[in-house]
Amino acid sequence: xxxxxxxxxxxxxxxxxxxxxxxxxxxxxxxxxxxxxxxxxxxxxxxxxxxxxxxxxxxxxxxxxxxxxxxxxxxxxxxxxxxxxxxxxxxxxxxxxxxxxxxxxxxxxxxxxxxxxxxxxxxxxxxxxxxxxxxxxxxxxxxxxxxxxxxxxxxxxxxxxxxxxxxxxxxxxxxxxxxxxxxxxxxxxxxxxxxxxxxxxxxxxxxxxxxxxxxxxxxxxxxxxx
Length: 226
Fold this sequence. Notes:
single chain; alpha/beta; Nucleotidyltransferase, domain 5; 6-stranded mixed β-sheet; 6 strands; about 15% strand
């Protein structure tokens, strides 16, 4: 176990990340390392607003093999309505790491060519890439590659077309998962992971053509920038 100065960084000795840019059609879904990720922020504007919390958990075949999680000291106050929504208060983040440290640690945890997953992952990756640029950490920008990412909302829209909504809580309930603490990064990551692996199970039960990471990417289609 490793404990970073501020964030919680836990990596199993058995954790293995994929070699950089290994062809996705050669990675079986059972061997892929997915990095499920979520941010909490002070607002929706990546240029102006700030990150308050980030969690990434690595999974292999549905099993957790590593975690990075930290609160982040924002560059602007957390609005009162978001304090009430998330439970993250201005007092809680006073002694947290600055965004440049959190992003450096996160990028190191993810590795060179991660398969990032999230619910509305385009938002998270867009926000992260903007903050990477603002922090002068452009060397890490390629790690947040939307073309290798998976959105559990998009996958659910395709796999479960009759749901009344595709908000995370609704999709999670539909696949039998209860999120005990919505709007906190770690709890939302675990929800997205449950959705991902339940959808993979459902799709594989319906077809024997879903074998590799590329198969899942082909099923999902190209994600839009946000």
